[in-house]
Design a protein that fits this description.
Blueprint lengths: L8 H12 L4 H15 L5 H11 L7 H10 L4 H17 L3 E4 L2 E4 L1 H9 L2 H6 L1 H9 L2 E5 L4 E8 L2 E4 L1 H5 L7 E4 L4 E2 L1 E6 L8 E5 L19 E6 L12 E12 L6 E5 L11 E4 L4 E5 L8 E2 L7 E2 H4 L3 E5 L7
Antiparallel strand pairs: 1-2, 3-4, 3-6, 4-5, 5-9, 6-7, 8-9, 10-11, 10-13, 11-12, 12-17, 13-14, 14-17, 15-16
Helix pairs in contact: 1-2, 1-5, 4-5
Length: 324
């Protein structure tokens, strides 16, 4: 794989970050020299070694430092600097890199995508992100009622409290998209009764699934919402993915929770499913607080349930998942 910055700028950035964070000094030197050689193959090894020695203790993902480094590698940086700035911004927004104690490092998902050489597909396609997240979804059902859930680590599922409470415990089963079933060993509710989220600890371990969470939600950003709503005439539940936008971020006046208003329409079986943004980050969980429905009643007419009549969906901010 070549990490020439003009042809593969994002790959060049990720390779650079991965290399300078290596703990083994000889391996670090070897990888940085390889990266330098990809940028300027015409320079001899003595020159590359001299450049490495000059910058070795300073290496970090800093655009001004990169500008100086590229100049040392005989580049005219008027073109490469804005390109790298753009790709660095995308890498941060997509959760591939993060700043930890002043040092930029690869995140778990950044390492995963870098090693699989799938980072360009991931950042460039919302369809790729949807298929990437597809594997992480779970149906939670007792063959009568159904809800959704998703793993946040190898043995922890997140779903809505009302999803789990409304199922017949003796008949409940949890199944991923690959057909593998999971056994619940512990149920942990959110510390606040107002937050309709629980965590389920499983006996079986899920395949590794790296992801990042974002609680800085932006109006009109695109989202993908997953879940298992009932489908008429189907023989079994199917995972559905819906595209939408963030219409508003509000606090629920009934309980004070931070809610996301989405432009897409969801069904009850979507409850507990993940909401991800256009950068592939988890921003929320689809939920429906059934104990606090708002109804309007007129004489000689039936009650109108606003939760089912309004043309949008709601979710809870993903920040609540990290609170317990």
């Amino acid at each position: 794989m070549t990490y020439y910055s003009i042809q593969n700028p994002l790959g060049s950035i990720l390779h650079f970050v991965n290399s300078y964070n290596l703990s083994d000094s000889s391996e670090r030197r070897e990888n940085i020299l390889k990266w330098q050689s990809d940028q300027s193959p015409a320079l001899d090894i003595e020159k590359h070694n001299a450049i490495y020695d000059e910058f070795s203790e300073l290496l970090n993902l800093d655009i001004e430092l990169l500008d100086e480094l590229f100049k040392s590698l005989s580049w005219m940086t008027i073109y490469i600097k804005p390109l790298l700035e753009e790709k660095i911004s995308i890498a941060f927004k997509s959760g591939l890199i993060e700043n930890k104690d002043g040092k930029v490092i690869l995140t778990e998902i950044g390492k995963y995508l870098f090693e699989a050489n799938e980072y360009n597909n991931y950042v460039n396609s919302i369809h790729y992100k949807a298929n990437f997240w597809k594997r992480n979804n779970l149906k939670i059902t007792d063959d009568i009622n159904i809800g959704s859930g998703f793993f946040i680590d190898l043995n922890t599922i997140v779903t809505c409290k009302h999803v789990y409470e409304e199922l017949i415990k003796e008949k409940i089963y949890i199944e991923d998209e690959g057909g593998r079933k999971y056994t619940v060993t512990e149920v942990t509710p959110h510390p606040s009764d107002k937050i309709d989220i629980i965590k389920l600890t499983t006996e079986e371990s899920f395949d590794f699934f790296p992801h990042t969470t974002e609680d800085n939600i932006i109006l009109t950003e695109r989202v993908i919402v997953f879940g298992y709503p009932p489908i008429p005439l189907s023989s079994k539940p199917f995972l559905m993915a819906n595209l939408g936008e963030v219409s508003s971020i509000v606090d629920n006046y009934l309980d004070g929770t931070d809610c996301i208003i989405l432009s897409c329409i969801l069904r009850p079986g979507n409850s507990g499913g993940p909401i991800i943004n256009e950068y592939g980050k988890l921003i929320g969980i689809s939920t429906q607080n059934r104990s606090q429905k708002v109804t309007l009643t007129w004489n000689d007419t039936e009650d109108l349930d606003l939760n089912k009549s309004l043309g949008y969906a709601t979710g809870l901010n993903a920040k609540y998942i990290n609170e317990f």
